[in-house]
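re: that chain from earlier
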Amino acid sequence: MTKSLYSAQTYDFDDLSCEERTIVGHIKQTTGLLNVNNVSRTKAYLDFYRQYPEIHWAFLGHAVSRNGGWNMTDLKGDLLSRLMNEKKQEEFFEFLERGNWLIFQDAYPQFLLYGESIRRKRGLFHLLPHFGISKFMEVIWEDFWYRRDSYILAMAQVVNEQSYLEARMIQNPFYMEKVLHTLEFVLQDLLSFNQILFPSLKKGRKTVLTGMTIHQFGSLHERIILGRRLYHLLFSDRQRHQDILIWCMIQPHSGSRKDYWPQIFNDVNEGLPGPLQIRRLRNCRLIRNSPRLYSPRLEYAWPNMKHRPAEPGDWFDDCSVVRYLIENDEPVDGKITGDYCETLQNLELAALAKKTVFI
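^ sequence. v structure.
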């Protein structure tokens, strides 16, 4: 591991009261039961948000986690599977799954502890260190308990989760060598496959895509700024928020892109094995009589992965991160459909050219 991980202070479980030990044990057990795969995590975030809508990051986490699942199944879908060998597919999946798992096992105990605090009508945030949560978030949760500032809490959680991943994933030499350097090349330089999509339903039940394009994935600062912009997309406009939330509630997450575009994607493979022979897409529509693009459900694409324990350590050692908590109302239009259509066409052209990115 890198030097960016700091030694964690140890906390004696035996020093807790019987009630506190029961709370900690129950939260750890519940988190473990739900932290099985991307589908279970994504559902858990939404279920929590519907119960506690003041915790905005739960909805942001749900919406972004859907995209994580789509990225996982893309590796076995019609296009990327023709551009990557199986080893690279597995390495990319492990990277995406590990990050998804790490964030959930850090964020979800915070949510459950908040729920316990509500039920007991007293803050229990002194227990956060027993889940390996940063001292930064202990201060933030205490502040939220008294001031109820949902924006500051959400931005703090964006900072916390991205900082939590920085040493464990982004600066990890293994992932840097096996995935990240390659990831930047594939997703940005070659295929521009780097959009985060928030589907919603409009009148006539037409799916509308809102979202943003990721730039400089390896930069902690840029990922935090992206998180802030995605938050604004979800919460700055009440009608847009409702449209996206309603779509999420009526469309269970399966990992397949069929969830939002069944006219283009199917979770059953309609095509023939082997290399693509002809184009199927034009201007984000299927050419007449063309089979839909295969986008499998997560359960059929990848088995559940057994994870090693999260690396210990507290990322927080610099108070300057509080600058990210200052409210920023920069305009974000969220127009993404054109970029995403271009992405699909680039992917299809690469597959048609039999351009093997990894051999």
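The CA atoms of residues 8 and 173 lie 21 Å apart.
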